[in-house]
Amino acid sequence: MKQSENLNSTIINVLFLFFPVSLILGNLLTNLNILLLCFFAIFFYRKKFIKFEINILDKILLVFFFCTILALIINFIDNYLDGQIFPKMVIVKTLLNLKYLIFYFVIRVLINKKILNLDWFALACSICAAFVCVDIFIQFTFGRDIFGMAPPYPGRYSGIFGTELIAGGYLQKFSLFCLFLPFVLKKKLLYKILFQVIILSIFIIGIILSGNRMPLILYIFTFLIYIILEKQIRKYFILIFSIIFLVLSFNVVINKNFSLKMQSFYGNGKYLIKTLLTKDIEDMKKEPEAVWLKSHVAEVYCSTYSFKKNPAFGGGIRSYRTHTNCMTHPHNYYLEIISELGLIGLSIVLVFVFMIIFKIFIKKIKPLEINLDALDARTLPFFLIFIAEFFPLRTTGSFFTTNNASIIFLVLAVLVSLISKKSLQ
Fold first, then answer.
1. What is the pTM of this model?
2. How many angstroms separate the CA atoms of 363 and 423, rounded?
């Protein structure tokens, strides 16, 4: 009996450890890995699933997915009554995305029953991040990566990801686990800081070479959040920030491509904000095509148009791209959610996010006191990824793509599980 339980646990943990690898290998293997993990987990531990007690955060997430189904039904009925053909893509994507709800609860139960090994998972993420970073360095140095792939565009080194320009985003998330490996944390304070700054600097260079600008900003932002949260190194904030500034300045000086990209990023962001503040959607309709082709301008106004059509429940998942001249997604989670799931969907997400932050930092005994030391080394990388993912002033991929959704719901499941423990109450 015990041998059988050990085998079941091993199978589950192997699939769990394969998660960061599957993200490198593509959507097909990521979906297959999630499917196998959910299937074997439910098959092996079905009794534990039946007995599992959900908490308030789990209930909020259930309401969110119920909202996606409700948005689908409401929009389907509206289209039927108007004599219009309802996009099949919205139906298919809404139903398929329920797999993330199952995935979330599978991770919740497995952590709650102490089946998953989060320490090994952190090591697997660290190894994968280090591999991706080294592969980018090799591609930059020799013109081709370990597998013989050349960079898809000049100055954009994507390594093993090939033509997909997501290497920077991958490093921004999974390299955070390297900062909290036991061999780093067990060092004396100054050596610990030195190791973390060296690790940070190496991955900053890797992200810069990838050409992904937003992941670079988020990576530095999350590390600064970590400094604020870590009591021991708070007093070294200025020193660490100065080192980060020097690393960035060095890259600006020697890497003209990086300098131009950051200038372009600043210019596009400034133009977008100015446009949003001075023109409504009716004014934008009169603008020439050149204005609409500016970075993210069309996406923002398309999401506004989509939201106004159904402000309460939105148009349903993936409905954004069904509107004329509205391509792919709004490049921001919040704009995507409000356009596809309306104010109700967005409200649910905001309540969920703020409740997680509240449960972590606000003490029950003293509700008005903020506890900055509430997170341990095991929880911190997941929390930092969570903060980066739900940071409102950022560009993103689509919320419900395989890559993003699988990471988001895994991180949420782990965070909710860890903060449910007494040590974080």
1. 0.89
2. 11
